[in-house]
Specification:
The complex is a heterodimer of chains A (about 325) and B (about 290). Chain A has about 325 residues and is α/β, with parallel strands linked by helices. Chain A is built from 13 helices and 12 strands. By secondary structure, chain B is an alpha/beta fold. The chains are: A alpha/beta (about 325), B alpha/beta (about 290).
């Protein structure tokens, strides 16, 4: 299999995605410039002159433009040289891109990829080297992915572009120069799947669950630890949101990953209630609990206005 | 205008029953802007709006049953009960959505216009917003993008002087558009100002105008409180003279007309439909 750098893998994915449909367009500060976003957008404006745009330095405004374009049937791919710049765009990401499908009852969708590069090293400083993936992962309606090597850099980008939701694609800048096997043909690494980067074996002592460039660091730590007889597993999350809660959690996934609906019959079940908390306690302590009193009490409360029992003084 | 007024008044009246369990920002007093602008549009043209969006939705041709059902949180609502009063949508008439963040739909509307240009369509997009939206960065960013790409878009600012209870002079050094702030914007973006509605088609959407931003400011007056069904003049945040001046200029006056009975029947039917509709079902945050 051919060996490529992460930047080459991302560039190849961009070319193959743009070839796939005329509905895709790429927009970002410096996308068509000579540096081509660290080489990842190299040659795109020549190959696809009608689908590649530079942009004004207006992260929030242009994110909103992309949401509108996506609502009207296009498939935007935004590129940001640093994820830190995206803080300007949080309104459009959180309130529009993430909510568009939900707040109109599924009648619109927002198929958009926001590529954002995470800086590290050479004194990048506190505004150029933040890992903000968990912050984006707090927002229901978004998907968040983070590649750790050239192979999943290409596959996750293709999956993100073909997804019908807004996907935040966070690429650590040191992945750009990392080399690895990358097939020439177009392929997906499915969103929602982690991968075991190193098996812990039957003597596994500990598991590292991490993402992005940290996977490489964890693998090296596991290598040193194994020499001292400590067997470590390394899990590469690949997708940060949505994730699966497994069977041990009492809260339903749907509840956790849903924005709040306004309809009273639904908002009633949206918020965590007294019985929900007691159920979690019962499960954690593996103890039988009588819910009847709490259930009756909760039923007597109007759920969408404050109840006198919760108004203090406490 | 009369129809929208009567619908909004019916909502205000029925709101007291507390079956519509979502905030409402009624358009009473501001109907003319919606009707004037939307009457110049074709069905394929798109409109986006704000938290105070009922008039825009109705003027563009949005379903009345869909609106009332949405307020009741029903499955038959125009947003399937996932939106409420502030998130209306009716794609059948190209009303592309209202949202509850000030200026939030301005870049979004510019994006709709960008998609039309990208696809080679001549459809227009009209973006309604209030006076406070001009104070947001998103307005300026979107305005620049629209003129940069020469998009077929009209910005419509309904200026009712107040952001909730805060007068425009407490929010801006120079609120007028004759000089100062607006003029500076005009120099920067090449903003054009239009005062007469009949000329919108001619002056806002001709090809040579697209390299400028077409910006229409419509001074207007909100009759009721910012949010809710009541009059809040007793709070005395607006000068009584200002109120009476504007009330004299109200475009919807009491009249006897055969339309009234017809509209009343339509409104009653919509409320009966909404109240008897099935409850909403949760829609996934994610598209398939």
């Amino acid at each position: 299999m051919p060996i490529k750098t992460g930047a080459e893998a991302i560039n190849e994915a961009m070319v193959q995605i743009l070839s796939e449909s005329p509905d895709y367009f790429v927009i970002g500060e410096g996308v068509p410039d000579p540096k081509a976003c660290f080489g990842t957008t190299k040659g795109l404006s020549e190959k696809f002159p009608k689908q590649v745009f530079d942009m004004p330095v207006s992260e929030n405004g242009v994110t909103g433009v992309c949401v509108g374009a996506a609502a009207a049937g296009l498939r935007p791919i935004m590129v940001h040289m640093r994820v830190d710049f995206l803080m300007y765009a949080m309104d459009q990401i959180v309130n529009m891109a993430a909510k568009l499908h939900f707040m109109y009852g599924g009648q619109l969708k927002c198929p958009m990829v926001i590529r954002a590069i995470v800086g590290r090293g050479w004194g990048q400083g506190c505004q150029h080297s933040q890992h903000l993936e968990e912050m984006f992962a707090m927002v229901p309606g978004l998907k968040v992915v983070m590649p750790s090597n050239p192979y999943n850099a290409k596959g996750l980008l293709v999956a993100a572009a073909r997804d019908n939701n807004s996907v935040i694609y966070l690429e650590h800048r040191w992945i750009h120069s990392m080399t690895g096997e990358v097939p020439d043909e177009i392929y997906e690494v499915p969103i929602g799947q982690s991968r075991v980067a190193r098996g812990g074996g039957k003597d596994m002592a500990i598991s590292f669950i991490t993402q992005g460039y940290m996977v490489s660091v964890a693998l090296k730590a596991a290598e040193f630890l194994s020499k001292q007889g400590i067997s470590c597993e390394v899990v590469d999350r690949q997708t940060i949101l949505p994730w699966h809660m497994g069977n041990s959690n009492t809260m339903s996934e749907q509840k956790y990953f849903s924005p709040c609906p306004p309809a009273p019959n639904l908002s009633k079940n949206h918020y965590t209630g007294i019985v929900d908390i007691m159920l979690a306690v019962s499960q954690r302590l593996d103890k039988k609990i009588d819910f009847s009193e709490a259930e009756a009490y909760e039923k007597s409360i109007i759920h969408d206005i404050p109840h006198k029992d919760f108004m203090g003084p406490f | 205008m009369l129809r929208i007024r009567m619908i909004e008044e019916a909502i205000a009246k029925k709101y007291q029953e507390q079956k519509m369990r979502c905030p409402v920002h009624l358009s009473i007093g501001q109907e003319a802007a919606a009707v004037g602008v939307c009457s110049t549009l074709k069905p394929e043209d798109k409109v986006v709006s704000t938290h105070r969006g009922h008039a825009h939705y109705l003027a563009k041709g949005g379903s009345l049953k869909g609106l009332i059902s949405e307020l009741y949180g029903k499955k038959t609502g125009c947003s399937k009960g996932m939106g409420g009063s502030m998130h209306l949508l009716d794609l059948s008439c190209n009303f592309y959505g209202s949202t509850s963040i000030v200026a939030g739909t301005i870049p979004y509307g510019v994006g709709l216009a960008f998609a039309d240009k990208f696809k080679g369509s001549n459809a227009k997009t009209v973006i309604f917003f209030g006076d406070a939206a001009v104070e947001q960065g998103a307005f300026h960013e979107a305005a620049n993008f629209a003129s940069l790409h020469e998009l077929n878009v009209l910005f419509v600012c309904e200026n009712n002087d107040y952001s909730c209870y805060t007068h425009i002079t407490k929010r801006r050094k120079r609120p007028g558009h004759q000089d100062g702030e607006f003029k500076l914007i005009a120099e920067g973006h090449g903003l054009l100002y239009f005062c007469s509605l009949p000329s919108i088609e001619h002056i806002a959407f001709t090809a040579e105008r697209r390299s400028y931003l077409s910006f229409l400011e419509i001074p207007t007056f909100r009759h009721l409180e910012h949010c809710g069904p009541n009059n809040d003049d007793h709070l005395a945040y607006r000068d009584p003279e200002y109120i009476s001046e504007w009330r004299k200029r109200d475009q919807v006056v009491a009249c006897q007309h055969s339309w009234i009975a017809e509209i009343e029947a339509e409104i009653n039917e919509a409320f009966v439909f909404a109240e008897s509709s099935p409850d909403a079902q949760l829609v996934s945050a994610y598209a398939d």
